[in-house]
Amino acid sequence: MWPFNIYRILQSKERYIWIQARILYETDKAILVESGIKIWIPKSQICGIKLRKSVFEIYVKKNMIG
Question: Is 50 part of a structural domain of the chain?
Fold first, then answer.
């Protein structure tokens, strides 16, 4: 199958990444994290949280973190 088609051009996929983050504060709707910079991330935009070797990692859209 040809890798380039109109659907792929028009429907760009959202990219998600795991980032190491330090959770500074949490409210009902958002979490303040520090990953080089301090940023509020809405809980609805966080797809996953894991703890690896005593470091929190969050799974968010790539464009959420500068």
Answer: yes
Cβ-contact 56, 46 below 8 angstroms: no
Domain extent at residue 22: 12-64
pTM: 0.68
Selection from 11, 18, 14 nearest residue 46 by Cα: 18
Quote the CA–CA distance of 22 and 36 in Å, as a whole number.
10
Query: What are the tens digits of pLDDT across the range 40-55?
Result: 999 998 989 999 888 8
Q: How many domains does the chain have?
A: 1
With a CB cutoff of 8 Å and minimum separation 6, the contacts of 53 are none
